[in-house]
Amino acid sequence: MRKIKKSNVIILIIILIYIGVLLFFKIFNNRIRPVLLRIANSECKKMATVIINDAVGKKLISSLTVDNLFSITNDNKGNITSIDLNSVIVNKVLTVTTNTAIYNLKLLEEGKVELLDLPESITVSYNMNDLKKGIIYKIPSGVMFNNSILSNVGPRIPVRFELIGSVTSNINTKITNYGINNALIEVYVDLSVELEVILPIMNDTIEVTSSIPIAIKLVQGNIPEYYANGLNSQTLSVPIE
């Protein structure tokens, strides 16, 4: 009888432990999972954006000549008739941008921080020892209590990311009126990267987008013979001789 009672107690304890574990994971999933994923997504986007902008920007600036990026056509009087982007230079820019982004994100993912030219703001904000292990952030588990006093207590949960899918890039231009008959042309590289945020027993996929300015050019046109400031204003004649 004692053996039977003892075995029943053991079975009851096992059942209670099993129920407790299920309840713990249910609470963990409902309360801490959204918080962890939100913080992890934010840190991944911030780190990836800084590395892409810094690495790709420096690489392009050192090898790109602004005048070669634009193809300008003039008439027989020297007036500008059309401005196009040089397709050869554009393809080169997109190739360099895509390859550099993949390379630098892979280095960070593998913890090869010494091969990255990280800006000083990153080295101050992040733990370099963690970065060398491929960990970009450690979230205190106390954030699940949603309390400022307890937010920094408890074991820290490491955040990693993995580059998945493909990196896509595209050229985007912005044209702004600048004075009379002048235009300011800005050229950007729009980069889109798909990343997987990796946490213990959970993960999530995010998309990091970044717009990197690579060239600015002021195009000067001819001074118009007439200039009107508004529909109801007086038209002024500008002498051309």
Give the SSE layout.
Blueprint: H1 2-63, H2 66-69, E1 70-74, E2 80-85, H3 87-109, H4 120-125, H5 128-132, E3 137-140, E4 156-177, E5 182-199, E6 202-220, E7 226-228, E8 235-237
Antiparallel strand pairs: 1-2, 3-4, 4-5, 5-6, 7-8
Helix pairs in contact: 1-3
Structural class: alpha+beta
Helical coverage, percent range: 40-55%
H/E topology pattern: HHEEHHHEEEEEE
- How big a fraction of the residues is strand? 25-35%
Describe the structure in your own words.
With 241 residues, the protein is an alpha+beta fold. It has one domain. Helix content is 41%, strand content 33%. It has five helices and eight strands, in the order H-H-E-E-H-H-H-E-E-E-E-E-E. It has helices spanning 2-63, 66-69, 87-109, 120-125, 128-132; strands at residues 70-74, 80-85, 137-140, 156-177, 182-199, 202-220, 226-228, 235-237. The strands form three sheets. It has a four-stranded antiparallel β-sheet with strand order 3-4-5-6. A two-stranded antiparallel ribbon has the order 1-2. A hairpin with a 4-residue loop joins strand 4 (156-177) and strand 5 (182-199). Helix 1 (2-63) runs antiparallel to helix 3 (87-109).
